[in-house]
Amino acid sequence: MTSPIDIEGGGASVVVDGALRPAAEGEAVELAGRSPGRLMWLRFRRDRTGVVCAVVVIGYFLVALLAPLLARLPGTDPYTLYGQDPTYADKPVLDEFGLPLGYLGGVSGAHWFGVEPQYGRDLYAMLLYGMRTSLYMALGITVLLMLSGVVIGLIGGYFGGRTDYWLGRGTDFFLSFPQQLFFIAFMPVVTSFFVDPREETPTYFRAVAMLIVLWLLGWMGMARLVRSTVLSLREREFVEAAKVSGASPWWIVRKEILPNVVTPILVQFTYQLPSTILSIAFLSFAGVGFVEPTPDWGRLFAAGARYAEQDPAFMFFPGVALVVFVLCFNLLGDSVRDAFDPKSGR
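User: That's the sequence. What structure does it adopt?
Assistant: Structure tokens below.
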């Protein structure tokens, strides 16, 4: 079934049974307009790299969501010390020096990615649970700082004047803080106020502390991007026409300006999420994020750095998983940007 055509880049494209193809010479077609969202979706579907990366990214989130179920397949969990627990004495996974038995860090039918030196914890289960911790923690932080940046950028860009001035000075103030170094110094101060130094800091407390700090020190880039876009939009003819017609500022921002800043917001989101994951991993690597026994991507790298000489294979699977995710998410961001902007020339 042939549907109306789209005009893109000077040529005609016909949608046939849901697929977009160039119109044949002399082919009778019916001209019809399509929404920007529909055109964006059609362009994105033609980008094979973007589609593959989208599938990979969605797969990561599904794997993280189903981590407890997937860890049961080989019958392991991330907390059991298989090298020290007497229950598993008849199935040794470590030698007398505390190193994994077998090849590639102790890969076997029971331990698909090998085991951790000294303790014998299952790396496959630790990676699944670590992905769940990092991905969903980063997703919550990214959504929060995106919302904050969009609201502040819209208010400052549209109203201008003193409002924009003071919001701008506040943004500059928060930009003056080195995010990761500030957090390293911030965690001991907070824990001394709310947690007994003789007790271990609860995992939920560390998660809340990371969320607050990464949110407070991460919204400024989004705010500046939205503000610069709104500054150019508020002088456009359709905004002036809405003002003349008596529309309220809230209506203009919601109906006229916000739909036109969706593109940079989505593109920035695709770049911000992997950056947030790396920030969380760095904090855990530095010892001020998640700690034992909470599984986390950054903590796996910290452990891998300790075991690098005795068991270099311990870093292989977590490293490959992180590189693939960050690479695919960045390529997905490029594809989304190109889908919204067909004149990008890529």
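Residues 234 and 240 are 8 Å apart (CA to CA).
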